[in-house]
Amino acid sequence: MQILNLFEAPISVTAYVPTRSPRRKQIEFLIKRYQRNFPGLELRFVDPADEPEKVRAENIRGGELIVSAAGRSQRTSHYSEQAFTDTLARLTRAADRWIVFVKGHGERSPTGVANHDISDWASTLEQRGLNVQEISLAEFSAIPDNTSVLVIASPQLNYQPSEAQAIEQYLERGGNLLWLAEPDSPANLTGLERTVGFERIPGTIVDPVSVASGIDNPAFVLLNRYADHPSIDEFNYTTIFFYACALHERPSAGWNAKRLIHTGDKAWSETDPLDGNVGYDENSDFLGPLPISLALSRTLGGHEQRVVIVGDGDFLANAYLQNTGNQDLGVRFVEWLAHDDALVAVPSRVARDNNLVLENWHKAVIGFTFLVGLPTAFALNGVVVWWRRRRA
User: Fold this and answer.
1) 98-343: CATH superfamily
2) Distances in Å between the alpha carbon of 172 and those of 56, 139, 142, 300, 359?
């Protein structure tokens, strides 16, 4: 429950639930989990029938929780630990964060439902209080100034000169960028890639360790080597990438570059088609360790500008997002790029509560059962057996 470490002021939860509703017990059980770690969390129940004017004026729905701290408030109607944690995360944001996705070039869609789209990941960002929006560079001459993070998600078509210029101007103004590259990205994107500060190493990454783990497709890569960087601090989950490309940093003057994730020593970038027997060719392939993600940063006008490039978009696709740490990694990148550093370490998927919490009456029942109930039952059973044998 790292999210609680971000609060100093008391947190109040007002639950608008009817007096006799069974949901009150469910809410109490949920909030008690957080109160064990944050005594300043207060829960108050209000029957909507007792305050009808306020319910109408503030458009409060029955069963809704209003969570407040430091003069700000957020709402949720879900009683899961994940939903409540996301509500607290939204409460910590001092301002709106707009995550803008470029569209119109075959990019992975934040609203599409196909396996290759990234709508599940976009929904996770929205649940954490980030605003998701798509933009067509063919319709707008410039990227909005209130964009916190621009996302280029695996474009399949070239950008027109005016579209590439809009991205370059956004970067010149100090904008933050997440670029999901692919081995088969359009060749004409090379110039924009060099402007951003990277280039793709030819080929598709192949890792024999993944094949030895029982994965038939050589394009699947299991990764667990992470650099020391704020965006992935204490991140220790395995991530799965599919048809990924290796990257080489080419930062311009004034930029700092950091390799975030890299493959093992035995992996290589295969430049031939991935069919038939795939093997390393020292004359044409590139041997690992190979960087698969880069972070670039510079100080511009007293503000730190941040860029993250990942040589794969499949790891955030609907088909693969729930694999191991993929979702958390994608959320971490956006939180860091949006300068919400305090939220980077807050997981996007809450682990189940494994602590057993017993009330005093629970303990009394268990104690009575094992110390009195079971011995008495065994004794009675012995008496019955003895009586039956005596009469036989």
Assistant:
1) Class I glutamine amidotransferase (GATase) domain (3.40.50.880)
2) 48, 21, 12, 9, 60
